[in-house]
């Protein structure tokens, strides 16, 4: 009998709680009748609903370090790992396109960057950074990505809003 790989129970519990919250948020009823915390914040502030996606991104990040760390320690080449990562990210991206299009498959209104697609991109990029950089490189990537985002925000605001006020649905993420 082969031993089962050890799992981080706290990560599995957090993943399960996040999935349960996602199901609750996605089936909360009409916005008129649902509990306000089960709706996204209109603009200012946040609700528990606004924590679902960041929780999944955090879970993916922790899982990357645990999974890839073990596989690197087992001697699996980085090129092979990267091929598996790219394949998994592509499947997740395509699944996101399918889920968003279902059941009507109206390609004219297809949303390219839904939740699963964004998770696929985050997984691919974060895995590549983890595989091909050390701690110093990872810190530089974090600082560089934050700096690039911070520098792009005013450019986007002035081009889209014509003033310095950032308004709802006028940001780099929408």
Give a short synopsis of this structure.
The protein has helices spanning 9-26, 52-73, 78-101, 115-132, 135-161.
Question: What order do the helices and strands come in, and which of them pair?
Answer:
Blueprint: H1 9-26, H2 52-73, H3 78-101, H4 115-132, H5 135-161
Helix pairs in contact: 1-2, 2-4, 3-4
Count of helix runs: 5
Q: In percent, how helical is the residue content?
A: 55-70%
Q: What average pLDDT do the residues reach?
A: 85
Distance between the termini: 50 Å
Please provide the ordered H/E string of secondary-structure elements: HHHHH
Description:
There is one protein chain. The protein is mainly alpha-helical and 174 residues long. It has two domains: 9-134, no CATH class; 135-174. It contains five helices and no strands. The protein has helices at residues 9-26, 52-73, 78-101, 115-132, 135-161. α1 (9-26) runs antiparallel to α2. The longest helix has 27 residues, at 135-161.
């Amino acid at each position: 009998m082969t031993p089962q790989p050890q799992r981080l129970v706290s990560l599995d519990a957090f993943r399960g709680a996040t999935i349960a919250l996602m199901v609750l948020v996605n089936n909360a009823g009409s916005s008129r009748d649902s509990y306000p915390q089960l709706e996204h914040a209109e603009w200012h502030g946040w609700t528990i609903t606004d924590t679902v996606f960041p929780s999944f991104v955090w879970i993916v990040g922790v899982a990357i370090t645990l999974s890839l760390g073990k596989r690197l320690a087992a001697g699996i080449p980085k090129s092979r790992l990267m091929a598996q990562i790219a394949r998994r990210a592509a499947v997740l991206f395509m699944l996101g396109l399918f889920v968003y299009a279902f059941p009507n498959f109206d390609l004219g209104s297809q949303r390219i960057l839904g939740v699963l697609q964004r998770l696929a991109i985050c997984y691919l990029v974060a895995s590549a950074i983890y595989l091909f950089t050390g701690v110093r490189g990872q810190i530089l990537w974090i600082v560089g990505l934050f700096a690039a985002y911070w520098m792009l925000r005013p450019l986007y605001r002035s081009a889209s809003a014509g003033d310095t006020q950032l308004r709802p649905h006028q940001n780099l993420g929408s």
